[in-house]
Write a structure and sequence with these properties.
Strands 1, 2, 3, 4 and 5 form a five-stranded antiparallel β-sheet that branches. Helix 2 (32-42) runs antiparallel to helix 5 (116-136) and helix 3 (64-79) packs across helix 4 (85-95). The chain has a single domain (22-176), classed as NADH Oxidase, CATH 3.40.109. It has helices spanning 9-16, 32-42, 64-79, 85-95, 116-136, 152-156, 185-196, and strands at residues 25-26, 54-59, 100-106, 140-144, 165-175. By secondary structure, the protein is of the alpha+beta class.
């Protein structure tokens, strides 16, 4: 399979979206109007019974040091090895090159008729729309997580409880380098279709 020479521009953006680690990003980040569009796109996620279980927390660079300190501490608690704190912190220092960070979470209502797992799926879908909308506007995006997302104390800092989930952290910015080598869009699509799509028959 090859991508069409002149595809529909909306489909082209979906077919060509890729991830670029925050270590390879620089300014500018989306401005406030662009960020509203990006997070607005997330509101169109498939959402059974309109629960809106997604939550997004925007973290600005002036708060990165405190944020990554807490995230590294959270990862270290989950790992159970205090000696790993500096290793975790160094990893996040690379991510801090991204000029904007969005924390994506699923706020689950366990008493709602929509099952918790369906609410989680909806929040994950909304997070993917953030990445797709950012790409459509010409920005680089990257989703990372790590052990810290499972730390209850860190989750509580966002008003999340044991039933809720931290999906991950979305880095947004402008590409400042090629990133790590990877397959082309054509190769990814071709191999992905072969590996993941089957025709169902009764």
């Amino acid at each position: 399979m090859t991508l069409p020479v002149a595809p529909n521009p909306c489909i082209e953006k979906l077919l060509t979206r890729t991830s670029l680690a925050g270590a390879f990003m620089g300014p500018p980040a989306p401005d406030d109007a662009q960020l509203e569009m990006i997070l607005g796109a997330a509101q169109r996620a498939a959402d059974h019974r309109r629960v809106r279980p997604w939550r997004f927390f925007v973290v600005r660079p002036e708060h990165y040091e405190a944020f990554f300190d807490r995230l590294a501490a959270a990862a270290t608690r989950v790992q159970g090895d205090p000696a790993r704190y500096e290793m975790n912190r160094d990893k996040y220092r690379l991510t801090a090159r991204a000029p904007l960070l969005i924390v994506a979470a699923a706020k689950i209502d366990p008493n709602h008729k929509t099952r918790p797992i369906e609410q989680t799926f909806a929040a994950a879908g909304a997070t993917q729309l953030v990445l797709s909308a950012a790409h459509a506007l010409g920005f680089a995006g990257f989703l990372f997580s790590g052990d810290g997302v499972f730390d209850e104390a860190f989750k509580a800092g966002f008003g999340l409880g044991p039933a809720d989930h931290l999906i991950g952290f979305v880095c947004l910015g402008t590409a400042a380098g090629p990133g790590k080598p990877g397959p082309s869009a054509e190769q990814s699509i071709r191999e992905g279709l072969a590996a993941t799509v089957k025709q169902w028959t009764p």
